[in-house]
């Protein structure tokens, strides 16, 4: 049976979607201080790591600084926590899981979150910790890697140890920021995952959609590029095609060497999650009018070469259907095959281009004509697929209409043994191209966001995404909590537990205090 026929059969046979969760099937686990985002959800044994990103600096307590921390011996069976309403409670971490222990904060030891230029000059102190990954080196000790989400980006590595009572300590003598100089730095290190072979995969969230204007002195975001130029120094203007990739930290307990996996495509990476075949990777793309990607490596445990695909979706309901109940069929369109080395050679062709080379109305980078030639099968090579992955995907018929696509994740062991054969993706804000009355996706706005479930088949492929958690009741005039306090508001981080529970962290301006929620699939009718 062809893939197209298979999808049609699925669409015809699927008449009832999972009922999306509202307040009755969600459990509030924690809230973070005013203005803080929940990031870095990562489970180690019975302990839950998460971060307090960019808290309000005026709250007047220890949580006025961004923090990386942990709840040891988390009590997942505890009762749901009531909403945060008291002023004092709005300024701290509250949780029914247990006590939150701060391990690291921005600026600690003059190292944590401190982004330096290649010449060693301080550029900024980040208050944006994101992804966490724990790499064990012995019983009850290992390295905690944490992203710092800035332009240029960073990643800290801290040696941490666990006592019998669950208290963690940090060896301040073994604390570094990962050296990204060999790859000309990184850009907005966002969410990530730990690979099945034990290496952190950090994501470059390249919020720069218009590469054609990368060296345009009049472009609205050109200051970001100039900061990156300051990082590089020596009058070097950055090559846009050096940024926007998944970066693997090889030898994490040793040299912690970064490798940019250009073969996984260039776009605004939120996250990459490797399936239990250790070859298939799903990749989320954050921003407006974005694409859902898949990569299949040539060899297990090796992301340096493979084939990149993009999703073409078919909406399962009519125009302006409720986003909380509307799923999408998925077909995969092949974009191309390449290796890191091949792509690096293409990237090098754009080295040495600076602001002085820009000509108004023209571009020094890949043109629309080159994208069209690639889509027509007339290009000399596959560079468009890997250097302009979104443009290539849309040109070949994939769907480029998703909005604010955030974390995508599985539980590796449970997916491998088949006990939890599901992948989850957070769509923080269903609006814009998803709700504009045009294209393949046209659902009603859901500003509070939706979490989608995708069932994995025996080959770890997915052919359907259905909403299982959906926000509701958005009220733009409700200043503190535009999404009701019993509704999810702008889901971002996703953690899937071994028992199938899904932990959801918010990145929201629609809740005064962002929330960590627990959703249990078994509670759904």
Automatic annotation (TrEMBL):
Residues 1-23 form the signal peptide. This is Cell surface protein. It holds the Pfam family PhoX. InterPro entries: PhoX (IPR008557). It comes from the Bacteria. PANTHER family: DUF839 DOMAIN-CONTAINING PROTEIN (PTHR35399:SF2), SLR8030 PROTEIN (PTHR35399). Keywords: Signal.
